[in-house]
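U., I forgot to send this yesterday:
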Amino acid sequence: MKTRIITGSIAAVLLIALIYWAPIEAAICAIAVCSVLSYLEFDKLFFEKASLYRQSALSAMILLILMSLRQSLDFTFVLFGSFYVLLAIVNVVGSAANQTMKEVVQHFSVELVGCIYISGLFGFLIPILEIPGNGKDYLFLLFLLVFMGDTAAYFVGKKWGKRLLAAKVSPKKTVEGSIAAIVVSLIVSMVWVKWFYGGVIESRFVLRLLAITPIISILAQLGDLFESVLKRSQGQKDSGSFLPGHGGILDRVDGLAFSAPIFYFYVTRVLEKI
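Result:
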């Protein structure tokens, strides 16, 4: 527990420093590095044999998607579509080697899921950060909603949790912890509005922010559960050991997988339009 708290505290300080004090280029580099390290955790989780070619190709593709999302969503679709075709061709050609048809389909599916999953985790963080005017504050809010909610779920579930949320997937997650995560997320949103905007803010903005907050919390919890499914399917408890007390990077940021894309589109299409 002590190790978990120390690691979490150090990570929180570094995160705030990257968002508010470091040049935006440093934050972009940090997101890129974390995305590559996360894919390597994913790769190790699903493939018994490491492949420098596979790891390099998928890491490069993920970085390209991350950079393309900064410019144009249409270009990202074209880029990903081209990658999909190329990946299919590579796997078809590779089937002539010492692989069964079942192995070819499994490898293709895992590589595709890995690319989509890691891109979803990190791909929208940079566009959120670069939202004119309030990007840094919005990114900070997203991290607060995901990480504070996860922390509340952990401690409340451990102390008062009785009803299991998804026993087969994650035997320690409870309904009580899930509710606590939603409640804490709502509190975080209200504190965030008060801290950054004071009394000068339209009520419509506050109401719309509070309306999306429970959804972001639920999506973050679903992202956590999805990563648990990935780990359980391979008989693993953690995705890695990069963060003492927390496991791998994926174990810490899994809540962003589904919440970050929805948060980005809601902010840019709804909150910023008020």
